[in-house]
């Protein structure tokens, strides 16, 4: 019990780092993910294909493997990276791919009539697509993505 | 760039990766099977019983889903034996963890599946004189499995990737094999350049197989 109490400050520090990392990752992956998702849905083949390859590779690899790859792999090819930034980069890459797929799903689920209605009232391409995908991606984030993210983060701080 | 790729060590120890992949798949299969038993049982119990039981099941689901899997792995492997005064192998411990984890996720999947079974089908079963138990076994469950097959498949692939967490308690699966080779040869890029495609290709093949299954058992709506 004493040990539990004395270790509390240390654990508290860990929690702060976890929250910090997850906060940054959420913001970064949301922005990048929506951009990549839009490219995936509406982009020409030369844009969509690299995103598809990136997304499939990152989503098909266990997060743990990805983290090890970034943390041990980048220094081996000469990029110096601390453990904090390695975790951040790996998690952001992982989450971005997932958000991109979510955004793609959201964009593809937009009803054709809605798009036409948006055109009819004179909105440009960016306005309806951006709003719809962002809101859908945000909604998704509040659900399971957030959960997975929490799991990932605690995975790193072992 | 003064790093020279050398795959020799990876091929030399490839057996570890090979058997690691097999063990990873075995763990995922056992996890999804045990998780299905737990999830299906709890889902059936939850739909059939009152608020108290439903709250208990919901508490279990929320607890597991909000605790990182890694923490559960540690809790089951180090925590439970130190309280209970017994020991088990890392592999056994991980299978138990994965079953409890998968169970919590699959409860929700199966509950949604049970609710999605068309009312008319169950009524039709009643009309031809099936008992309540027969209706569950011959009408509800087969229909439900067709409905939940995509979610179940995705859960299986997720679990396959989650088995990489077993490496932290020294279960000799694929990620552990990769770490072993790395710590002994310091050939990190080469090791992961081989291991990542192994996960990828296996995952893709599983996905392909599951999509074929889905197409075979698709619910066709008239």
Short description:
Chain A has 158 residues and is mainly α. In chain A, 85% of the residues lie in helices and 0% in strands. Chain A has one domain: MetI-like (MetI-like fold).
What descriptors fit this protein?
heterodimer; A: 158 residues; mainly alpha; MetI-like fold; disordered C terminus; B: 222 residues; 9 helices; 0% strand; flat
Structure description:
The complex is a heterodimer of chains A (158) and B (222). Chain A has a single domain (24-156), classed as MetI-like fold. Chain A has helices at residues 2-6, 8-42, 45-59, 63-76, 83-108, 112-120, 126-156. By secondary structure, chain A is mainly alpha-helical. Chain A is elongated. Mean pLDDT of chain A is 78; it is low at 154-158. The longest helix of chain A has 35 residues, at 8-42. Helix content of chain A is 85%, strand content 0%. Chain B has 222 residues and is an all-alpha fold. Chain B has helices at 8-12, 14-48, 51-66, 69-84, 90-116, 119-127, 132-162, 174-185, 188-216. The longest helix of chain B has 35 residues, at 14-48. Chain B is built from 9 helices and no strands. Chain B has a single domain (8-216), classed as Orthogonal Bundle (MetI-like fold). Chain B is flat and about 75 Å long. At the A-B interface, helix 4 and helix 7 of A face helix 4, helix 8 and helix 9 of B.
């Amino acid at each position: 019990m004493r040990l539990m109490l004395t270790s509390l400050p240390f654990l508290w520090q860990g929690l702060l780092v976890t929250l910090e990392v997850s906060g940054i990752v959420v913001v970064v992956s949301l922005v990048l993910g929506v951009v990549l998702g839009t490219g995936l849905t509406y982009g020409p083949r030369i844009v969509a294909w690299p995103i598809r390859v990136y997304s499939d590779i990152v989503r098909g690899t266990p997060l743990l493997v990805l983290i090890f790859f970034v943390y041990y792999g980048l220094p081996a090819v000469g990029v110096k990276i601390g453990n904090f930034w390695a975790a951040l980069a790996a998690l952001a890459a992982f989450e971005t791919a997932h958000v991109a797929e979510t955004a793609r799903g959201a964009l593809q689920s937009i009803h054709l009539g809605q798009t036409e209605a948006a055109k009819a009232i004179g909105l440009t391409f960016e306005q309806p697509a951006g709003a719809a995908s962002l809101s859908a991606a945000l909604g998704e984030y509040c659900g399971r993505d957030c959960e997975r993210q929490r799991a990932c983060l605690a995975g790193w701080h072992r | 760039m003064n790093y020279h790729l050398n795959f020799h060590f990876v091929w030399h120890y490839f057996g570890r990766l090979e058997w690691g992949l097999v063990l990873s798949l075995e763990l995922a299969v056992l996890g999804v099977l045990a998780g299905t038993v737990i999830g299906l049982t709890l889902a059936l119990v939850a739909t059939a019983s009152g608020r108290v039981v439903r709250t208990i099941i919901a508490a279990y689901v929320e607890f597991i889903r909000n605790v990182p899997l890694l923490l559960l792995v540690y809790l089951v492997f180090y925590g439970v034996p130190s309280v209970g005064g017994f020991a088990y192998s890392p592999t056994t411990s991980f299978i138990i963890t994965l079953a409890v984890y998968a169970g919590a996720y699959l409860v929700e999947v199966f509950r949604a599946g049970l609710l999605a079974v068309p009312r008319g089908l169950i009524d039709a079963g009643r009309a031809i004189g099936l008992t309540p138990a027969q209706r569950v076994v011959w009408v509800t469950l087969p229909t439900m499995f067709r409905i939940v097959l995509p979610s179940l498949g995705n859960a299986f692939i997720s679990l396959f990737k989650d088995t990489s967490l077993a490496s932290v308690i020294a279960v000799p699966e694929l990620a552990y094999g990769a770490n072993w080779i790395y710590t002994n040869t310091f050939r990190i890029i080469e090791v992961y350049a081989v291991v990542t495609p192994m996960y990828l290709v296996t995952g893709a093949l599983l996905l392909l197989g599951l999509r074929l299954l889905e197409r075979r058992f698709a619910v066709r709506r008239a």
